[in-house]
Amino acid sequence: MLRFNILGPLTLTWNTETITVPRGPKVRQLLSLLVLQPGAVVSHGTLVDELWGKEPPKTALSTVRTHVYHLRKMLREALGERTAHDPIETWSTGYILRALPEQVDAENFQRLARQGEALLDRGDLAEGSRLVRQALALWRGDPLTDVASGPVLTQHVRHLEELHMRTLQLRIDADMRMGLHSQIAAELKKLVACHPLNEWLHGQLITALYRSGRRGDALHAYHDMRSLLREELGLDPSTELQTLHQAILSDKAGNHSFVHSPVVAAGRLFTGEMHRAS
Questions:
Q1: What is the Cα–Cα distance from 95 to 86, expressed in whole angstroms?
Q2: Any residues with CB less than 8 A from the CB of 164 and at least 6 apart, and which?
Q3: Separation CA 33–CA 93 (nearest Å)
Q4: What DSSP character marks residue 83?
Q5: Which of 97, 114, 208, 255 is the most core-located residue (most Cβ within 10 A)?
């Protein structure tokens, strides 16, 4: 089966064989848009918006047709006799990539994440965590990292990155609920360094350190986060984090943690709504 991979560099594979991807930047953009919506019509207007923005040339539609022609030719030459049908179908309003969702890594990622989220919500931490980890394992880097992005692709990429962060939060939340505090503290430190303004990650790091018996490190992590927020945004930590801080100071935190769970927000994202990560 031909597979389309966009969670990292754009690649096409047939079983274990890599299929040549076109080099032309606009052809790669066009292919990426089709892959992001397998089995659905991508309109001429959407393609023109992606390739030229608000000031397309008068020849935009004919140029799109030329790009589709070259893309079809490349795919036919690369696939040979392994498939009988043309993977790109022409409609009056646009083009369709004739592919099933399971042929696209981004679709598989979202399916596994939804299934894992549902299990976690029901309290099946082990199986839910396993599926969420499978979803995250499909990521090979930043989405479409080797494809120039216009306004349409940029929105798709941002949405995928938000889904990735929410899915990562689901996995961390599951690890915390399973008591794996010591095991994930180092990972949380790296994540906080990469996402310094994400209070949810800071809260999990502080909680993980405290529950690992590292009360002093937990307090240092809180003070570092508070200083960063004040310097960068002129804000104090959230009420939840301040409450956690006071509980750690008195050494009466017990099972107290940063309680803002990612599960509900992730569920909204997986139904297609656009939300910013905390």
A1: 12
A2: 109, 136, 139
A3: 15
A4: -
A5: 208
Q: Find, among 190, 107, 194, the residue nearest to 156 by Cα.
A: 107
Neighbours of 197 (CB within 10 A): 15
d(C-alpha 184, C-alpha 152), whole Å: 36
Q: Nearest 5°: phi and psi at 200?
A: -60, -45
Which residue is associated with the tokens 């029901």?
A: 122
Q: What are phi and psi of 4, to 5 degrees?
A: -115, 125
Q: Which residues contact 139 (CB under 8 A, 6 or more apart)?
A: 7, 8, 109, 164
- pLDDT score recorded for residue 74: 84
**CB 101: neighbour CB atoms within 10 A?**
12
Chain position carrying tokens 């107290």:
256
For residue 213, give the DSSP letter: T
Low-confidence ranges of the chain (pLDDT < 70): 80-84, 252-278
CA dist., res. 245 & res. 137, Å (int)? 34
Question: CA–CA separation, 278 vs 276, rounded Å?
Answer: 6
